[in-house]
Amino acid sequence: MASKSGVENEGYVEDAQDAPDAGRYQPKKWDIFRIVNDEEISTSAGFEIWKTINAIIKLLTCTVFFGIVLGTAVMSKLSFLMMTFHINPLDKDFDVSYANSTAGRDAIFTIKRSGAVDVKWLWGLMICIWTPYVFTFIRCFWQLITKNTKRMQCVPFLVAFIVETIHSIGLCLLVFFVIPALDPLIGCLLTTSVAVIPSILKLFKPRPASASMQRNTHPAVRVLKIALNILCAAAQIGVLVLWTWRIQAKVDSWSLTVILPVSLVFISISWWQNFVRNDTVLGNLSKRIRNQQVRIELLTSLWKIIVTFVVPSVLFATGGEDCAKTFYFMSANATDCSVFGNLVLTDFRPPTGSSCHADFPLIIAAVNILCSAFCYKIAQACCKVRAQIPCFSLPLVLVTPATFALLLLSYSTSNQNKTFLQCVSPWVTPISDMSAALRAFTTDFWMPLGIISYVALLYLTGHIWTPRDERLARTYKLFAKPMYCGILLDQSLVLNRKRIKERETLSEEFTAPWASVEHFSDDAEDFDLMDTSTIRTDTTPIVYVCATMWHETENEMIQMMRSVLRLDEDQSARRKAIKTFETDIDYYEFEAHIFFDDAFEPHNENDFSFTVNNFVKQLCRVINVAAETELNMQVNIPDPTKTVTPYGGRLEWMLPGGNILTAHLKDKMKIRHRKRWSQVMYIYYFLAHQLMSLPIEAKRKRIMAENTFLLALDGDVDFQAEALRMLIDRMRRDPNVGAACGRIHPIGSGPMVWYQKFEYAVSHWLQKATEHVIGCVLCSPGCFSLFRGSALMDDNVMRKYTTPPTESRHYVQYDQGEDRWLCTLLLQQGYRVEYCAASDSFTYAPEGFYEFFNQRRRWTPSTMANTLDLLQDWKNVTRKNQDISCLYIIYQMIMMASSIITPGTIFLLVTGAINVALPSIPLYGAFILNVIPIAIFVLLVLFAKSDTQLAYAGVLSAIYSLLMMLILVGLISQAAEFGYCSVTTIFLTAVIAIFLMAAVLHPQEFTCILHGFLYFLSIPSMSMLLMIYSLGNLHVVSWGTRENKQAAPPAKPEDNKPTGSRVEGWWGKFIGSPDSRSGGRSLWLDSLFKCTCFSETVVKDDDSKLKVIMSRLDGIEQALTGGSVSRSESDRRSPGVTSRRRSRPVSVHFDDIQEESTKTQQPEVFQLTSAEPMWIDDSTLGNGQLDTLNTEEKTFWDELIEEYLYPIEENVEHKKAMQTELLELRNRTCLFFFLINGLFIILISTLQLVSESTPNLSINLPCATGDSNGQNFEPISFAFMLVFGVLLVIQFFGMFFHRLSTFLHIASLTKISDIRRTMKGKKSEKMLKNMTGEEAVQLVKDLQRPKEEEPEEVYTVLDSTETDNIIADRENNKWRRLVSRKIIGNKMARAPVTNYDDVFIENFSDVTGVGRDGASPRQGPFRKTQKSVKHFNKVSVEALSKMASSTDKVKRSLARKATIMQNRQQTTRMKTDSASSDSGPPPGPAQRRIRRHRLEAGKVSGKYENIKAVPSH
């Protein structure tokens, strides 16, 4: 954030005698007053306070989540052991004994007694096992019907079927026989021995990903890991064998002896997929099963439900018909049941006086199910928000010790209260001597074996302590199997949590780190702060910020430029944080581009005496203003480099952070204008030209394309850097996401903006969120959207996007809503479009009624046309796009139908309001009163001018707003008459409740609900009149907004109004028009006459052309005579733009002086149509360097313009034909629209009229009580209201689930502790282990801004101690600033900041103790006084304290970096000064910048083969 000190912190300071005069800002000694821009706060910056709130919320949430996970997991295990305690399949008492030498006899403790088994306990356990299988079936069935899934193959299905069958059999044997035959303590410890197969598979450890990783691992470490793996497997197997032997010796049951190890081994096979190597046969098989998981799990979950039902039935229902009847609740009891012995089954129903409920066992099962499901979802959320260690790993490993401790407590006499859920349930007889009982357990069953098994399980699941630092990871990336085990909850979660495989798979390329953090060795001397080649990888996000401009105001331009400068500051700080502090943070690189439509003054095609329009000049003027406003300091961004291009021109600025801002000036005489063609421009330029021209292999290009993103912006958007990172998170989370959009907030003032605030809020809260949850977002707004490069490069996307309109519907679908059409193409190709509510952006909304209606006149038909196109192509879309199902298509069809009949619904609503307000008028009279103004408006939109239509719509909107007040009164009267026994009241209450709950779930946007009343008043205007206006003007394809602003008045054509004398006009009539092609005689006579009689006028008109021609002839003469051309002159030469159509004349190129000299020898073919344009010398564009395009890029632009972007020649006949087709399209659409709404209105109105005389057509609500009667309603009316209500409910639930995902996204970005990912086999080389990445970034941001430190003399004059008197402190601070400026003005001179690197090097050198320019620092190393850090962020101050407390080795490394940076900085300055003194100005940005995606931008260290890195500027 900008410092609150404002412009007072303007530039670093140095001695005036050392300051060069050139380029310095020299303030006067008396100039001590400043303008502090505290009020210039960005709209998006208002959301910064939520970062602190989010951190507090996450801290509280993690604390709560820890308690929930631990508590629910313990409760799940306790309830499971409680249910098994009431089952005794062997019908034997379970006791332990201890030889008591003091008493002379053994101490015997009976833990569990024999007795009848209540079958409800058996069914409770079965339901607990079934529940995850049912959840799995529902989830897979939903995905099957809503998404496209891969076909199931035979071999993967058979393997999964066999494994799941074995697991289900083993789980049933353990649950229904093994643990019930023992006591709860032994059963609790026995659950830790379910990892035999995983421990064996871990012996075959995956190979390192590379030979270098294997070399970096010490041999002793490798041997130790192998030994520990062997020890872990031996522990699991040995404990299983020893425990089986001891149980056989004490329980004396061969069936238990055999089933116990078999069941545990069968259960452990379920987690084999998480412990196999990817490069083996099993690994390949596991991958195939994962790819077909939906269909396989759909069938296996059903089969497991069957197996879980069959196994208990075999175990307990055998033994006779009575046993089966009792087991299935058809008999009260039965004896001699079970395959293992004489077991008594009973359906126990307690007497009336009992405190227990009849279904108490099922209640315990319900508690187990709820706790298990809740624990699983919370644990899953903890992994997604990067809180795995405190909220997942730690509580789950504590479950077994906590459960064991609670069981011991329940065994003791200290716990006499056995009441559970207000029921006294049988439990263990209290033991008075617990120490003797524990010794008995130890001697009889070797209880320490359980501790060994528990420790082995901890080692086996050690991967849960080193999670992958990935935000919002999907469930299939977090867990090997997507669901938990209903019995072994904690074991299934830790064993299912995916391990970090050292050999990355193809799908993990999208989850790779954003940057490579390279350690600075002690003896290295090649540290370069600007060199990003060492940290950038193929998976580093590259963002092209592409803004389109046309007629933006100054405030709008400043707002957009401030957003770009925020990105520049953030990216620069992250680069320095990684390079300097070697911290692992989210790193990205970006280039900013502005595509300016119609950037030049009106001119002819072959004219060159033109300059840029006022809007481009305004952009050049506001860049420094935006920088000073955003950064709150004096900034001097160098003048742009100018380049003449085939499409017009280019201006390039070097931003303070070292990033490039390029303004592409489009000449509509050379290239097509409008936003769609600008998008075609930059997409082809960045992807087809730059990316595909890289000299690397195709695989690396594919990876880079997946991580190349285009941020589409409007020219007035405002956003923070964090909003962009959130969109990148969405894209990297799923490689199939082709586009992602954020939450758009309209800004401005006036009632129209207030209306749009609520409208935008509701559409994002409900509609976009629902589309995201149940399918895909249909439109990613062009004002702030991120597109994936590889998705745009796919077939049928960009190639189809370049299609010019040839039919009438194309003008509506293609040009009126280009962003929606591009999203439609992505959806049809199978890509997903997502909505990220946590990514906020702000844009100016129309403030006037006319402008708003014209904007929506474009949006409404485009929305309907693209939605209709998607619905018509539903077969292809559902086949290609796995996120769009038939159900989603049905949902969109219903939404489309509801939007069509909405005007009719509003018409009926207004008719009812008139009837309520004027009860003397019958219903048909109110109908006629409402029809008349609507009919007039329909006639106006069909035949009148646009201004007349809008004026009438404005008046009618005001009248309808008054009628809406009558509707409100009518609704209130209905509620008072019928109460809640009214369909209208119920519906209205539900709508209000949904809106209020949506606002509560969006606390940052809660104030939007305050504009709901205005939205209610505007319903007739915006839902009925606007729809009629949009469809009635369907043939109007102009943009509709910003068209009233003109850059410069166009020159009047000579053909329309001659400017010569009257005699010349008569001569023109005599000789014919200048364009006449009657013959050569007319032409030469005309030329002769004009040359003789009107030569003075001609010279005046063509004076500018003559000057350029003469300058060119002078240059040719110098070349012919051997003269030299100055460097500045040669730099300004640029090849002209030639025509690319054969039907147009081809201009002559002046490629070099030799060609020009050749042309002079042939005057008959000499043409000067490719002269340098006048705008290149415009002083308002600055005095920056001139640049030329290289041959490859110029060829690319020439060919691109010729193929796709050449200005469409206006054909009068084609224009008339298209206008006729558009009118026909308008007429057909309006006929359909009015017919549907007319039929709907007549149907409902007729039913209302007839129902008054025919009671059978209406239904009375049966809820009438007391004085209130039930309201009558017609079934058809109720059906339509029900459809709207169902849609609203669906959208509410979609919004609710989307809010959960948004909460997880925000929580994943919010850090409360420095829990970092640890790479396996590699020691962490982070320099400052206690400094988080965000702390390092904030510290860099403060260090790269100049801080005005107050001189020591100030503190001798004024006291700096703060008091409790606010007014006194404010006055003291004010005078301290004034005195400080006076002293500094007498001693020093300031310079505006041109780049962050120089300021950072000086401040960082001061912090590390190196000093500025080798001088002694003002403070000691790593020390900052209170006054020197008073402008620092609190996070930065904390980071400085951590630097001060770091080790001496770290301090020395940071000091060495500071020294190297200073030396490199001084060397660069010397080279620059030398170049300036030798041959003119220094090279411009085009020569010294690092091109990231071009041939000359190669990365070092073999990143790009055979490419040298360009030296940093």
Give a short overview.
The protein is of the alpha/beta class and 1513 residues long. It has 52 helices and 20 strands. Helix content is 55%, strand content 7%.
Q: State the shape.
A: globular
How would you sum up the major sheet? 11 strands, mixed
Residue share in helix: 40-55%
- For the biggest β-sheet, the strand order reads 13-16-14-15-12-7-8-11-10-9-17
- Helical region count? 52
Structural class: alpha/beta
Which stretches of 5+ consecutive residues score pLDDT under 50? 1-25, 209-213, 502-511, 1046-1106, 1115-1170, 1313-1327, 1414-1420, 1479-1513
Mean pLDDT: 77
Radius of gyration: 39 Å
**N-to-C span:** 27 Å
Beta-strand content estimate: 5-15%
Total DSSP E strands = 20
Q: How does the SSE layout of this entry go?
A:
Blueprint: E1 13-15, H1 49-85, E2 94-100, E3 105-112, E4 117-118, H2 119-146, H3 154-181, H4 184-190, H5 196-201, H6 211-216, H7 219-251, H8 254-268, H9 281-291, H10 293-316, H11 321-327, E5 333-337, E6 343-346, H12 360-384, H13 388-397, H14 399-411, H15 434-445, H16 448-460, H17 475-478, H18 489-496, E7 542-549, H19 554-581, E8 589-596, H20 614-631, E9 641-645, E10 648-654, E11 660-666, H21 675-691, H22 698-706, E12 708-714, E13 718-719, H23 721-733, E14 737-747, H24 751-774, E15 784-788, H25 789-792, H26 798-801, H27 808-815, H28 818-828, E16 832-844, H29 849-872, H30 874-880, H31 886-917, H32 923-943, H33 946-978, H34 983-1001, H35 1012-1017, H36 1019-1032, H37 1062-1071, H38 1080-1093, H39 1095-1101, H40 1103-1120, H41 1127-1131, H42 1153-1160, E17 1186-1187, H43 1191-1205, H44 1212-1253, E18 1259-1260, E19 1272-1273, H45 1275-1309, H46 1333-1343, H47 1352-1357, H48 1366-1387, E20 1388-1390, H49 1396-1408, H50 1434-1444, H51 1448-1478, H52 1485-1488
